[in-house]
Fold each of these.
Amino acid sequence: MLDISKFLIEAQGVNIQADGRMIINHVDMTVSEGEIVTLIGPNGAGKTTLIKAVLGLRSLSAGSVTIRPNIAIGYMPQRLSVDPNLPLTVRRFIGLAGKMAKGKRQSVLDEVGVLPIVDSSIHDISGGEMQRVLLARALLRDPDLLVLDEPAQAVDVNGQAELYQLISTIRAERGCGVLMVSHDLHLVMSATDKVLCLNNHLCCVGHPDAVSKDPNYVELFGPQVASSLALYHHHHDHEHAVDGHVVPSSEGHSHG
């Protein structure tokens, strides 16, 4: 059962300016243990900038970000360029993350489903396999908080659905919080607890099926995109209020 009182990070009134332009305007956000929070919004909305601020990689113009002391964070970047002339296997790439306990590398690669390609060149694997390798690298620290910037980038639609399901499974088995960025609410609807729709400011916040009906979401993405969101089933041991608040339930609840 989720316990949203156990905050991992809390952002309050975050403003970020650059070149005289407000990139992030008064954004509040929390991520708790065992909770998946997804940032969605159009290109240029400030999603990656907010992620960088949470990670301490971007200075704030105003507001604050509080992170639980001694927290372990695993970060999966939006993209990672590897020199095509550099001979590098998946095994070696994972090994570059530093020293780790015996068997740790194999265990994490198995967890994300890429152990069979461990001796393949990093340049020969598919986009979906590369994303899973990057996810494995983020998991090596046994993170309390997993931060994923567009984890399904360069992955086909079927692969995206599988990857989001894998992220849900990792959350369930590890109990970590997850903060991720996505362009597509449709794909993450069944794999997230709370959505923050960002367009430099917070347009709407809440459970994904509530956000999909929010007038601000419809205005931002257009009625055709909003109405195309498919029905889905979301099985778990809690329910959600309209604002995304988690309410314990004695039985799994299906939305649809």
Note: The two ends are 21 Å apart (CA to CA).
Amino acid sequence: MLGIALAMPASAQEGSSGTFSFGVGADYSTGKYGRTDSTDVTYIPVMGRYETDRWLFKLTVPYVSISGPGTVVGGDRPIVLDGGGNAQRRTVSGLGDVVASAGYTAYSSAATTVDVTGKVKLATASESEGLGTGKNDYSVQTDVYRRYGDFTAFVGLGYRWYGDPAGTDLQNVGFGSVGGTYKAAASVSVGAALDYRQPIIRGRDPIVELSPFVSVKITNATKIQLYAVRGFTDASVDWGGGVVLMHAF
């Protein structure tokens, strides 16, 4: 959910070669995920980005707090485990899973950009406390951006390989997103993204979530983004929202 518009390609963000950016964010979400009790997640990431030529490297180190049944563990989306975990409600917090990615702009013209990205979620969150699955995940994705004046449409497709925590068989799945952004003013962009991910456990729902957002350029080097999230399936968050602040050096 974090950084929807900030994930736009370099050409769409007016970035320059050899640019380092630092950011912080705050994200809150709540959902029942097919259970009776809600799980509340607070996600506070510290982010670093380095952009040079056609390459974009990103690293996210998050602090995570989870309050909910012990059968629901953290991740980029909470996961209800088939086995293991204590169903009693608990509140835990600590280091989340570190995420590293490398993206390459495979094609770029005045109107169209195509990015290819590889990503790894490192199992740095505590499995025993339910802050993560304790396994690494890997994904690849392709994103296409098409500009029509002040409006940019985007679509993304990817595939993710999940590590299996004890007692649970997580399926490797495809995922995708579609949406657009509109430059409403010189320093303000608004937009929305619809995200989909196949079920990672057999018999469960896919993720379907809608995320409207607004991005404001405070200075030439600083940008803030606010967003909300509404889920439409048992695997999705019920609702959530957050803010991201990025500064380029």
Note: The chain has one domain: 5-248.
Amino acid sequence: MINAIGLNVEKSKQLAEKLNILLANYSIFYQNVRGYHWNIRGQKFFELHVKFEELYNDLVLKIDEIAERILTLGHAPEHRYSEYARVSTVKESAQVEDGLAAVENILQSFTTVITLQRELLGLSDEANDEGTNALMSDYIREQEKLVWMYSAFLNK
């Protein structure tokens, strides 16, 4: 059976389920970065405060794009933070005032979402879903560069 955009219904359901997990991870990641932005203190305050704001603004756009992709596939995006907390492998951060610790947490979160996005690349390829595939590919390319930059900041 084929859905409204010409994809297999069962494969679209599997993609939507995995996209909802990605949505949960992005939502927790987003809120963590907001907390880093609000609570950062110390020597690198001005530099990191701006970078964290840039990052959370980007994350909120991706959250919306992922939710819209789930809808395009014919399914409903999850919206409950209780469900996000249950399924997300990115965990809520405690208040983080230390910029270096915040950047470490950001790098760990990128590892999580990039890994999920690579899984989605495989699923979307199997489903012949170019829309999801292109979205994940764009995110991975962009985030790999951010991982390099944040790692360079930490001198890793």
Note: Helices lie at 9-39, 45-72, 81-87, 99-126, 130-153.
Amino acid sequence: MTTPIQQHLILVDDDSSLRAVLRRGLERAGYEVREAGEGGAALKLLASAAADLVITDLVMPDMEGIALILSLRKSHPKLPVIAMSGGGRMKPEGYLDIARNCGAARILTKPCTPAQLVGLVQELIGPRATRPPTAPVSG
């Protein structure tokens, strides 16, 4: 029998309702999710505890997703990032192209379903990982 290894994600979006829906889907798939409403808050979460992957919206108040991706590329160059956008001043594809060029590993147009997001997470870090149980201590 194997023991689940919790994989830690940071989900960044200024839309708290969407964040809640996506979080529930990710948690049902076995991931541990911490949330942030903008990029600066996500960096603080990452400074307090490691993450296996970051999922970020691109158009947000304060620190936007592109700035977050650029910061992560400097501080955590191997940390995978999924960028999401529903657009803003331009169509979502424009923002997503920029995100990919800045280092996002995957992109996703919003609105999206939790299943679509879980699929991308699994592509990047796999399904919830497992490890063999520890051997019992004899004594």
Note: Residues 130-139 have pLDDT under 50 and may be disordered.
